[in-house]
Known about the structure:
heterodimer; A: alpha+beta; 5-stranded mixed β-sheet; two-stranded antiparallel sheet; 9 strands; 30% strand; globular; B: alpha+beta; 5-stranded mixed beta barrel
Amino acid sequence: MYITQQQEQFSLAYIHAVATVAGYSIYEPKVDDDSVDIGILANSQQHRRAPRIEIQAKCHKADEWKTDKDTYSYPLKLKNYNDLRCDTMVPRILVVLMVPQDTSLWMQLTHDALTICRCAYWFSLKDFEEVPNEESVTVRLLRSQMFNCETLQELMNRVGETRSL
Amino acid sequence: MKVIISDKHLLSAIRPEDVALYLKSLGWEQVDVVGDKASVWRPADPGKSNSELFLPMRSSLGDYAARLSELLFDLEVASGSSQLKIINDIQFATKDIIRVRASRAENGTLPLGDAVAFIKHSCDMVLAAASATAVRKSVFYLNKPLAAEDYLKTLRFGQTEQGSYIINIHSPVETVVNDPEKAAEQPGDQHAPFSRKVTQSLALALKILSGNGLNAKNTSDRALVALALDAGISANLCEAIVGITQSVEGSNVDFGFRWSARLQPPSEVPTKIDVQRVHLPNIVGISKVLRDNSDPDFSKIKGMVVKLERWEPNAKRGKITLRAYVHGLHRPIYMSIPHDLYNEAIKAHKEYLAVQCIGRLKQNSRGYHLVDCNSLEILPPSEFDAGDVRIEKVVVRSEQPSLDL
Lengths: 165, 405
């Protein structure tokens, strides 16, 4: 498997794990859209009315995020940037899983624990402005926006109330 | 075979208003909205289903294709129709469909020449119906009503279907008033757009021609012309129908009509008409009566002088024959012209120059004639390609009597 495929699959596995523990369902988009990898659904019994979020998943090999920095600059392809900022019926977010450079350190498994290094951060580009860039746009991930069960539940509640993020 | 429509380009091309129209035609009603992004639909009859459909309101939404794909899936479950059929029906919601079918086409194919003739005569048929919708005439010569010409430009030739040889002509239907709800409720045809009047008129005319509604043998010419005009039947329509049927050897032809969901379907108008070969002699007879009793318009004819005929040098009028392109073919056009123009005709013939004549173009059993022609003008070479016309015969008669036309 190519490293890029490993990164992609690992980020999806992370999101799947977080969604499952938070009590939500997962679905794959039927229509091929480069900017949506996975969807999270609050209630599969009434799926069209239930809150939903669709995610562009990324996995970024980087040095450890320094604790004295609140933001992390992440280069996002221009196409993804535009697809994530446009108006949609189902809200979209970017989720970037930060992992160590060494693949063998991504996951540690013992009899007592499964540890995934490190964690993911979410970001909404809704209502962002069009940019003149030609290839990529730098997005500043916020340390405070960790993608975990609690923040996912907050996001889903927000979508359920206002239909947006 | 179960097919899931997931092609982004195909889905993005479907308009939300067409989907809404289609849902209404199936008995669904809008019950809610989700902001400015989606409308929520349920069956008007709750006994049918408790399903809900979410229709994205704008095709500009970034996830429009994905949401439409979900709607197709939900509608497939609710209605039992395949997604392929649903997509087809949505695309037809804003169009009347005229279907022309050769009932016996081997393996669903036709010889190439026959297929070309089949399609050409089908177009002629629709143009004839449109012309008769615009103005009632027994024959439409070179110039068709502008409304008919404009209407023809809106038509689309749809994909053929499996089974025999079938062509579909798509006739877009626009609502007359701004409110589609009101347009759909308009009783009768008075508020119908021109395109709907054409398809409706064509269906009724075909029904008459395929039955005993108009009999050339048992009806006086005057009565026949009146009945035909009233029914929107012209010689052009008759000849087109004959042409369609004759282009498929050994086969009958049937015509189908599918009405757009934009308007109420017309009442008492058939949706399927069979024209059998036994009907053709009567249709030919009707066409002949209509042509013999027609009142032609003035037409401009451009062509080459191929025959000159004047049995007295000083006769008030002389006869000439032009070779011109009329009604899809190069044909001889017979006419008499005033004495003072006859020398121009001689010059044009000798110097191989094209001419333009104005008169009333008429066709009878002996061919095409330009009557009341008092105008002949030699055209500059740039205005006419003489190479398009082959001169088959050149005769200059100055002493022998000419034939009566």
